[in-house]
Each structure stands twice: as C-alpha cells, then as structure tokens.
Please model this.
Amino acid sequence: MSAALSNTKIMNRADLTCRLVAKLKHEEAVIGGIGNTNFDLWAAGPRPQNFYMLGSMGLACPIALGVALAQPQRPVFALEGDGSLLMQLGCLTTIATLAPKNLAIIVMDNGIYQITGSQPTPARHADIVAIAAGCGIAASHWAADEEDFERLVDAALATAGPVLIAARIDDKPGVGATRRDPAQIRERFMQGLGVRQPI
Amino acid sequence: MATEADAARSASTPGWHDIILRSFKRNEIGLVPYVPDRVLTPLIQGLHDDPFFTTFATAREEEAVGILTGAWMGGRRGALLMQTSGFATLPNVLASLVVPCQIPLIMVVSERGTLGEFNYGQSLVCRTMRPVLDALAMEHHTMTRLDELEFTVDRSIKQAVATQAPVALILSPLLTGGKVFA
Model:
C-alpha cells in the first residue's frame, strides 16, 4: 500500500466505480485504464461515453487529457491504477502545465499488480497524492472513505480542475470482463462523444 | 548543414518546416505535442508562434500518443513530433492502442543515426525504426527532397484520416541537414 493518510479507509474498486458512474448525468467521458479499472467500469454498466483501454498500460490519463483538450466543455474522468500510473508519472506534469479545467483523475491504489499475481509495486513507500501535488496538480486528495470519495467527485464536477482523487482499495480482482473489440469500443466512444454517427 | 542549406535558399523560398506547418494547417492538424529534437527546433518554434496550434512538450513520446488518441476520438486532429530514439519507445502503444483502435496517428520523425551520425547508439536505434513500422504494416515515407515534401505530407495526412491508419513521416538529413558533430 502506498503511503496514504493513515486514517484513509480501504475501499473497493467496483463499489467506488459504481458510485462514480451513478453521479454522471451529463454524458461525462470516462477513460478506463488497463485491466481492473476498465473491467470494473464495464461492470458498472454500459455508457457510450466510456472508453475501455485494452493495452498501452499507463495511457489512461494521457487519453483522458486528449479528450479533455478536444472537448473542453465535457467533464472527463481517467480511472487508473497505481501501478499503471507509475508507468507514466510524467503525464502528471503535462496535465499540471496544461491545466485542463474539465479533467479529473481517479487513482485506485492497492499497492499491488493485482492482475498479474498481486506482486507489490515499487511504490509502497510513495504517496500518489503527494506526487501529483508535487507535479503541480494542487487539487490532489486522498478519499478518506466512500462518503468522502463521493464528495470529492461532486467537487470535481462542480469546480475547475485538474483534480486528482486517490483511493486506497482492497486486493479484489475486477468484477467484469470487457469485450475485447478495440475498433468497436473506439467507434462507440466517438459516437458517445458526438463525433460520429452510426452508419 | 541545415544552416548553410537555409542560407543558400532565397529568403522567399519556404523551408521544410514552413511547408510542414502549412500542410498541418491546411489539414486542420492543430494539436501538436512533441519531445524536442535539435533538428525540429524551427518547426517547434513556428508552431509555438502561431496561435492556430496548441503545441507543448510531453515527458515521453508514449504520452503524446495517448493524448492524440484521446483528441482524435474527441474530434480534434493532431500530430506528434519526435526523433528516431523517441519512435523506438513506441512499439507497445502502437501495437496495442493505435493500430487495433484504428487511430490515424500522424508521426513526424526527425531521423538520427544515419548520413553522418556521430553517436553509435543513435545509429543502432535508427536501424530498429523501419523494421518496426514494417512489422506493423504501417505506412511510412522518408522525405529527402524539398520539392516533394508538401505533396507527401499533405497526401499522407489525408490518407491517414481517410483510412483511419497511422503514418510515419521520416525527415531525412538530406532534407533537414540533420545534426552534425559539433
């Protein structure tokens, strides 16, 4: 487990993902990172504004940044694991510099590579929120519990970003299994963002 | 050398970087992340100086690929500028994101490692670039001549968008002058 505040509760990724999705009423975009983050996003129910990233570990935040730059009026969420974020920490500096007002990053931090056998990440002594704040994302917060997570999501939807919300989570696997059809996922997402019409 | 070549041209003749910038603009390529390269400097400067473009450095080339993928899906076109060694960091994201998701990623690669390279490591990295592009059956063009540049860049961007397939535009030292041992 990364060095979160000692009083932060250990929560569950699928539960938090459902709580997030339940708050999305205005076609907000959500980018699910590799593996469990997009499996749980898939399990939370179909939304045309969801993009499920099947490979390219670490790129959920950059993809979300691209969507945010292309559609500055649409709130965009990146769902990322701590191990995935470690592969592309530099992107936090880019996000801090460009400072898109419509971008929120949610980091599900269990301190392990759950999907590959629960090996610990090298970041067990690192604090994701401190890293993000140090990169220049001032609005970076640990969610103390589920209620606090919901409050932080509400705040992300109501105030200008960029925002990073980190949550300590348990070691449970994802509960869904994303259909691995990248072209269809991409096309549906573009339709969900109003960029394409179905043929 | 680029500076001598530039000086030899008349002031009214557009340079390679002017032509690429113009082709970007004509094709609505407005979002241009980059990992800088000495050879690309005049192009990067030109992009920064023109408010049409949103251009910025990323910490890593993969990151820029993610940004451009998201932007394309959101309806905004862009291109990635990098050097040969930067391209060498990309096979995983090209094979697992760009190609299967049919993203028309425009890559402009300043070619190091050939025609007078002074760094052995660069010359070895350079040899991995075209085999990777060919292994993924990705369109690529090596641009050596100023008179063919506009046609190649313009048509390649149009083809990438129309076919939803990536393209690499490799800027040869024959075009840019490359980087020489100081």
Residues 76 and 103 of chain A are 5 Å apart (CA to CA). Chain A touches chain B through 40 residues (CB under 8 Å).
